[in-house]
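Quick start: what a row looks like.
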Amino acid sequence: MDLAGVVPLATDLEGDLVAAYPGLARRLALVLRDAADAEDIAQAAFARALEQRNRFHGGDARAWLYTIGLRLAFNERRRRRPITLAPTDEPVWAMSSEPDLWDALGTLEPRQRAALVLNVLDGYTHEEISRMFGVRPGTVSSWLSRAKDRLRVLLGDESK
């Protein structure tokens, strides 16, 4: 019996997760707009991924970790009451480099913002993002279209 097609190739899952962790924390900070919460959720996602490593069946370890992190983040947002951020809560790195973009991103619905970050910054396809969120690819396309339209209006580029 040829096991090559049955048993996934050995991967350094823990190494892949460690390498993906900083990106997850940054993405969650963009999605949640709170660096401290993002760090907490990234740590929880990393711990959960290690605890459930037997559920990983190969593929993109970064996407798997991001999926865990995003789901934890959205569950936490639903659990909490909405919090209005004061201007001092904005991260210095975002406000000093692109304050208009940061403010515009803050107006997006969190799932739209997350899909946009995953697509634009990380290069995930609509299909890959749809698997992360457990929705249809058309839903992701709609989120991305609405997010981009909103950003165009807010940032002054209504020509497209």
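That is the whole record. Residues 49 and 128 are 18 Å apart (CA to CA). DSSP finds eight helices and no strands in the chain.
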